[in-house]
Structure formats: C-alpha cells, structure tokens
Amino acid sequence: MPGWEDELERWLMPFLDRLGHKTRQRMCPLYVAGLIGPGDRKSVQPMADRLATSSYDQLHHFIADGVWDPTPLETELLDQADRLVGGRDAVLVIDDTSLPKKGERSVGVAAQYASALGKTANCQTLVSLTLARGEVPVMVALRLFLPDSWTSNMSRLKRARVPAEYRTPRSKPEIALAEIDRAIAAKRALWMCVGGRRIRT
Predict the structure, then answer these.
(1) CB of 150 within 8 A of CB of 143?
(2) How many other CB atoms sit within 10 Å of the CB of residue 60?
(3) Whole-model pTM?
(4) Is 62 exposed, middle or buried (0-12, 13-18, 19+ CB in 10 A)?
(5) Alpha-carbon span 80 to 14, nearest angstrom
(6) I need a surface site. Which of 12, 125, 176, 183 has the fewest CB within 10 A?
(7) CA atoms within a 13 Å half-sphere pointing along the CA-CB vector of 73
C-alpha cells in the first residue's frame, strides 16, 4: 500500500511529540514500521536491513540502551484510547497473552501455560488491559509477567538488565491491579466493569 509509512507517521505524531528527543522521534516510526511490516524476524538487524536504513546503531540504541520516562507516552495512549473508544458503554478487558519463544535469554521466557497454544510451552506471558467499545479494542497497557524461574534468580535478572523495580515476584492479578491504579492516577476517563458495576475513574 503506497504511502503507508507517511500515514503511520501521521498516526504516531501525538506520541512522537511526547518523546521529545529528536533522535527518538526519528527512530520510533522506523521501529514501529519494522514491527508491523513484512518479515518474520523482528530483531533490530533484520528490521534495519528490510527498512534499508543506515541507522542500525541508532535504532539499536533506541531499543536496547535508551533510558527515558515512558509516562508521557502511556498518558497519551490513554488519551487516544479514551478519544477513540471511551464512553459509558466502554469496558476494560483484563487478559493475559502468551508469546511462544525459543531459547531462554528473552526476559521472562520459561515453560509456562501458553494460552495461544492451549498447553504448557516455552513462552513469555504478558498481562494486558484493553479499552473496548462495541467491536473496537484499544490496548492501553501491556506488562511482562516474570515467573518464579526469573524472580528467584537475581543474577539472571541483572544479566538481562531487568529494572530493579520489576525484580520482585508479582502475580498476574497484582500486575493488572497496578496497571489499573496507574490509569486512575493518570486521571483518565476510563470505564471499568468491576463486579458487574461500571465505575468511572
């Protein structure tokens, strides 16, 4: 589809404004295009090759080494979700998602129940919050669950550069509640279905 990269950059513009740093603003559309574009391999080198960019080092830094506060982006995401699908008939869907993985180096990967496969398999598990109205969902949070094989192994956590605040064990419900608290703290107009009642935050 000709021009889809331009359309993507226009769609990303509110988020790019929140990034602030010019290099990050330039690398973000490239990275997102690499993720949603053709090709099975989604690591930085194959994506940079497919995108025919000479900015491999900057793209790698954007993903692997850049240290920046995600709060402005998360707040913008909540704003955009509320604009697109918020309202009295919107609901917040809490779920988990499994990503089958080979090897053991990806953070959080372990033998655990993979909902996508319907069985125990080597995978990562993510806890998601999705705002939905009608048949339109917009994901507003996605957090990695770390199984005991990770949280009980401090050297493994450090080697993988897991931030200190995420090294303590947390269950999936605890992660979901923390994300709901974050949305409330951001003072977004989300509607949540709790025990059959809808509560506006």
Answers:
(1) no
(2) 16
(3) 0.76
(4) buried
(5) 9
(6) 12
(7) 14
